[in-house]
Write a structure and sequence with these properties.
Layout: H1 3-11, H2 14-33, E1 39-40, E2 43-44, H3 47-56, E3 58-59, E4 64-65, E5 69-70, E6 75-76, E7 80-81, E8 86-87, E9 91-94, E10 97-98, E11 102-103, E12 108-109, E13 113-116, E14 119-120, E15 128-130, E16 135-137, E17 141-142, E18 146-149, E19 153-154, E20 158-159, E21 164-165, E22 169-172, E23 175-176, E24 180-181, E25 186-187, E26 191-194, E27 198-199, E28 203-204, E29 209-210, E30 214-217, E31 220-221, E32 225-226, E33 231-232, E34 236-239, E35 242-243, E36 247-248, E37 253-254, E38 258-259, E39 264-265, E40 269-270, E41 275-276, E42 280-281, E43 286-287, E44 297-298, H4 310-314, H5 324-337, H6 341-354, H7 368-371, H8 379-392, H9 399-418, H10 431-435, H11 438-450, H12 460-471, H13 483-510
Parallel strand pairs: 3-7, 4-8, 5-9, 6-10, 7-11, 8-12, 9-13, 10-14, 12-17, 13-18, 14-19, 16-20, 17-21, 18-22, 19-23, 20-24, 21-25, 22-26, 23-27, 24-28, 25-29, 26-30, 27-31, 28-32, 29-33, 30-34, 31-35, 32-36, 33-37, 34-38, 35-39, 36-40, 37-41, 38-42, 39-43, 41-44
Antiparallel strand pairs: 1-2, 15-16
Length: about 525
């Protein structure tokens, strides 16, 4: 139908309209049963199909509706054109079904627009927006309120590129089954995506501008979510939002209060070069993989209270991609900025671990001599990090170095006690040596070597007596000290010094002593 025929049929009312629409749909079913339905790319391939398309299509393009328009419960059997249409008053689409393409390209809505229980089963165009095929709202202008509510469904791609929302905008309980794009869209009023709104395909908001309050409440992004180069001039609230796929917020400007409270990032998330100019929170957020905050800047460090990185720690190497060391380093920088000492230590430990086998190698590679590359790239850092991890959990464990210090003390005590068994017959003895307690002397020597910071002169007499008790005296009546025991003592002193240092470091970290 042309525009005049479409307007005349609209004036007859919804009953007459739907009677005609159902007859058209029945006619299509008959063509399909008789194998006469032939269409490709929206174009009929035989005369029967072409005739049906011409008769079932609806055209309101380039028309101006001066009064309020109510298309509630209307059934559009095939292509519907509202391109360049102007709605001067309210426009209501409640329980409306678009069975074919629907085009609202470059359409202007001047007051309020409702899409209540609306189903777009084919391509729906709303100013470069497509519903239930490809929905195109490009260059559409909503001067009043725009509501997409109560189970509105976009069964195919939906495009809101360059769309202007001058009033408040509400997407409540809406399902985007295909890809959705809001590129360069302008939201001048408050914008809410709430009540279990779901984006099943890719969701792109690149270069969009949100001037009022923006809220994504209980929203689920099943496909990739792109929020790149966006400006949130007002508050931006992502409460209980779920990103099931990749979420990118690169180069986005957050000027107002921003919160990702209880938001779940189930795959990689990227916040590269974002700017937060006010309060910024990830309280109770959950990161399944390591987020990327490279070159992110905040006026104050973002809040990470009770945020969950357990899955990111678990999947550090196995599922995360990219330069993980750089990502952990960026998180560490934010923790330092926020004086979050505990997370600073966690992020530092993951930064070290993420370099193993990648930047840092466990063993040298002699073939690198011929490639003019480092023979042992990051070898020192690899083994330093390895021992730092297992001796003290990167300076976070108090019990580990303490228990190791006690264990090594017992081991060296046993070695001091055991060594002279084969050599005692060659040494001279006196009554004092014969009556001494060798176990007590071994414990004393081990304790003395385990506490290297004690002054030697104070305990020199006891040390000599312990050596004499354990190893006897030589011909000059001086304590005999086997060379092996000297090296054992040096080794214990070195190990004890390291463990005591790690113990003190853990105490400092535990009590956040600067």
């Amino acid at each position: 139908m042309n525009k005049e025929e479409s307007l005349d049929r609209y004036k007859e009312g919804v009953k007459a309209w739907n009677k005609w629409a159902k007859e058209m749909l029945a006619g299509k079913a008959t063509l399909e049963e008789n194998n006469q339905w032939q269409m490709h790319g929206g174009v009929g391939l035989n005369q029967e199909t072409k005739d049906w398309i011409d008769e079932s299509s609806v055209a309101f393009s380039n028309h101006a509706f001066e009064d309020a328009v109510d298309f509630s419960n209307f059934i559009f059997p095939h292509v519907t054109h509202f391109s360049n249409t102007k709605f001067s008053s309210d426009a209501l689409f409640s329980n409306t079904t678009f069975s074919g393409d629907a085009s609202f390209y470059d359409t202007t809505f001047n007051i309020r627009t409702w899409f209540d229980n609306t189903i777009f089963n084919g391509n729906t165009w709303f100013s470069n927006v497509t519903f239930s095929g490809e929905v195109e709202f490009g260059k559409a202008i909503f001067n009043g309120e725009a509501w997409f509510i109560k189970k509105t469904t976009f069964s195919n791609d939906a495009c809101f590129d360059n769309t202007v929302f001058n009033g408040d905008t509400l997407f409540s309980n809406v399902t985007f089954s295909g890809d959705s794009r809001f590129g360069k869209a302008i939201f001048s009023g408050d914008t809410l995506f709430t009540e279990k709104t779901t984006f099943s395909g890719k969701a792109g908001f690149d270069n969009a501008k949100f001037s009022g309050i923006t809220g994504f409440y209980n929203t689920t992004f099943i496909g990739e979510a792109e929020f790149k180069n966006i400006t949130f001039s007002g508050d931006a609230k992502f409460y209980k939002t779920t990103f099931s796929d990749v979420a990118r917020f690169n180069r986005t400007l957050f000027e107002g209060f921003t919160s990702f409270r209880e938001t779940s990032f189930e795959k990689s998330s990227s916040f590269i070069a974002i700017k937060g100019q006010s309060f910024f929170s990830f309280k109770d957020a959950k990161f399944h993989l390591v987020p990327d905050f490279n070159q992110a800047h905040f006026i104050e460090a973002p809040q990470f209270d009770n945020s969950d990185f357990s899955q990111a720690l678990k999947h550090n190497q196995s599922k995360s991609k990219g330069n993980l060391s750089s990502r952990w380093r960026s998180l560490k920088r934010l923790a330092i900025q926020g004086h979050d000492h505990e997370r600073e230590l966690i992020f530092f430990s993951e930064e070290i671990k993420s370099q193993r086998g990648i930047q840092d190698k466990a063993l040298p590679n002699l073939l690198n001599c011929f490639k003019k590359k480092p023979v042992w790239q990051g070898g020192a850092r690899y083994w330093f990090g390895f021992f730092y991890q297992y001796l003290s959990d990167f300076g976070r464990s108090i019990m580990r170095p303490l228990l190791l210090w006690l264990l090594f003390g017992a081991i060296f005590c046993f070695l001091y006690l055991k060594y002279p068994i084969e050599n005692m017959s060659t040494l001279t003895h006196d009554d004092s040596i014969a009556q001494c307690d060798r176990l007590e002397s071994a414990i004393y020597l081990s304790a003395r070597s385990a506490l290297p910071f004690l002054p030697v002169t104070t305990y020199s007499e006891n040390i000599n007596r312990s050596y004499a008790c354990l190893y006897g005296k030589n011909c000059d009546e001086e304590a005999n000290i086997p060379i092996v025991v000297v090296f054992l003592s040096i080794a214990q002193t070195i190990l004890s010094t390291i463990l005591i240092f790690l113990l003190l470091l853990a105490l400092r970290n535990h009590f956040k002593i600067k």
